[in-house]
From TrEMBL:
Membrane topology: Multi-pass membrane protein
Gene: Lhfpl2
Protein name: LHPL2 protein
GO terms of biological process kind: single fertilization
Regions crossing the membrane: 12-35, 96-120, 132-154, 183-203
Annotated keywords: Fertilization, Membrane, Transmembrane, Transmembrane helix
Family as reported in the entry's similarity comment: Belongs to the LHFP family.
Organism for this UniProt entry: Vireo altiloquus (Black-whiskered vireo)
Location within or outside the cell: Membrane
Length: 228
């Protein structure tokens, strides 16, 4: 018989697991890892309402994507175009970034799997007599290690030709040059920290769902058990 067990700690762990997976996925897909040096506005970049020049813009560069401003042939207007600069894996700008993409993708796949499984922990608390919370916590710890490896390798690729075109000739491995770090990089770091917090907190979720109070309510024949 399936017992639906809901506790504050298990629900908090589930929500954090989902948030971490989405945060890492969004960061990985974003082009806002590096913010390039400001590009000066040309004489065509004129604000139609004020007649003055628009402010210089900052192109952005991600692991496999970029955002830049393009001009229209028929109109004195410029739009920002975002998309992948690499059509396949081998075209990613740096070997270090290729390794980063692999490690981050592996970590994110594990996190997404755990996030999906965590939704069903209200009904299923064990797999082959092993706590599903402990198994998921172990997987989250492994995912966190993959994410750390990816984030450590990522700055080593700042000296590639693609990065120097955005960050200037002084950019090199672990040196930003004229660039600055974008929100995606910080989101990835924050998600990695939360990944390890989730891994540790999974033990608390397991304790909460296997407590004496839960067992007492199961013995009383309750199918829906909600505890603070």
């Amino acid at each position: 018989m399936c017992h639906v067990i809901v506790t504050c700690r298990s629900m908090l762990w589930t929500l954090l697991s989902i948030v971490v997976a989405f945060a890492e996925l969004i960061a990985f897909m974003s082009a806002d890892w590096l913010i390039g040096k400001a590009k000066p506005s040309s004489s065509e970049d004129v604000d139609n309402r004020t007649g003055g020049s628009q402010e210089p813009y900052h192109p952005t560069l991600g692991i496999y994507g970029r955002c830049t401003r393009i001009s229209h042939m028929q109109f004195p207007r410029r739009d920002t175009l975002c998309g992948p600069y690499a059509e396949n894996f081998s075209e990613i700008a740096s070997g270090f970034w290729q390794a980063t993409a692999i490690f981050l993708a592996m970590g994110i796949m594990i996190l997404c799997t755990v996030a999906f499984v965590s939704v069903f922990t209200m009904c299923v608390q064990s797999i082959m007599k092993k706590s599903i919370f402990n198994v998921c916590g172990l997987l989250q710890g492994i995912a966190g290690l993959f994410l750390i490896l990816g984030l450590i390798l990522y700055p080593a690729g700042w000296g590639c030709q693609k990065a120097t075109s955005y960050c200037g000739p002084y950019a090199s491995a672990y040196k930003l040059g004229d660039c600055s770090l974008g929100w995606a990089f910080y989101t990835a770091i924050g998600g990695t920290v939360l990944t390890f917090i989730c891994a540790v907190f999974s033990a608390q979720a397991e304790i909460a769902t296997s407590s004496d109070k839960v067992q007492e309510e199961i013995e009383e024949g309750k199918n829906l058990i909600c505890l603070l």
